[in-house]
Design goal:
Helices cover 17% and strands 35% of the residues. The chain is α+β, with helices and mostly antiparallel strands.
Length: 141
């Protein structure tokens, strides 16, 4: 089963300073074949992954976890990520600076049509194993 994944290219906090997302966090999982908006094309790296058996197994990768802060309130963060450095390790042509520039429409794995923002070509999918990092356990899947 192949899925598309959106990976955060920036760090963001909520109004109380809680961690909302960090670079590399898996923000969304979906079936292939949909387009993407301009904002999503610039703020997230999109790629295709495979290696899990069911949609439910993929959906877990994008779920938030909740953790209390010093005041007892809870904020959410992401448990799973795909570190950009890991992508660079697997593909030496991956440009970290271009990926981190949220003003640049840099999508090296799912090429975006600049007029329609639909994916027009794609590379072979990445394997989940050894790519997706579980921040809670400190291990790659």
């Amino acid at each position: 089963m192949i899925m598309e994944v959106a990976i955060s290219l920036e760090n963001a906090t909520d109004d109380s300073g809680g961690e909302r997302k960090k670079e590399g966090d898996i923000i969304g999982i979906r079936l292939p074949g949909q387009g993407v908006g301009l904002k999503e094309a610039k703020r997230y790296l999109w790629l295709r992954i495979e290696g899990l058996d069911t949609r439910a197994e993929y959906d877990v990768l994008a779920e938030s976890i909740y953790e209390p802060d010093e005041e007892g309130t809870r904020y959410d963060k992401r448990q799973y990520c795909i570190p950009l450095a890991k992508i660079k390790e697997l593909d030496s042509s991956f440009d970290l600076d271009k990926a981190r520039d949220t003003d640049d429409l840099y999508q090296p794995y799912l090429v975006v049509d600049g007029d329609t923002y639909e994916f027009v070509t794609s590379e072979l999918p990445f394997q989940v194993s050894g790519l997706v990092f579980n921040k809670e356990t400190g291990l790659y899947l």
